[in-house]
Amino acid sequence: MRLRPATVPALRPAVAGVLALILLAFGGTGAAQAQDVAFQSVRSSPDAPVTVTSDELSVDQGTGIAIFTGNVIVVQEGLRLNADKVTVDYVQGDRTQISTMTADGNVVMVSPTEAAQGNHAVYDVPGGTVVMTGDVLLTQGPNIMSGPKLTVDLRSGTGRMEGGGGRVRTVLQPGAQGSTP
Question: What confidence score (pLDDT) does residue 167 get?
């Protein structure tokens, strides 16, 4: 059977739909502009204590900024963040309350079942969100997702990988434990 040129374009949506179903059913790779992500164990209360360790600490009492450098490790409940440098900004007028923590260089955020790495991250402590940018790579069990920006809501345990002009890439391993992104 020979298809006429007018028939081929009519088949394209059907073929695309079948390919999409195959990818969903059997796994594979995909790219999109944004992808929602369920985090199984990345829940943390903004009110929980934050422990920061580093090689050096510099504090500017006038501005209320603390800068931790060298092998910085930040721990809050089951969440751990490593970076080359972390800048802590305190709430205006209250030097006992953290407003934001900004991590730069080799940023890695780890929970018991997920790990994300990027170049930069900002943790809005009162808001309970972490925004990671710069070649973000997220692993959840055997599954991998990459993109320019990852936003994680620590209260709800949800996240969103965004393309921001680029693309989000996902590699799913079908049938593997922990394979739900």
Answer: 84
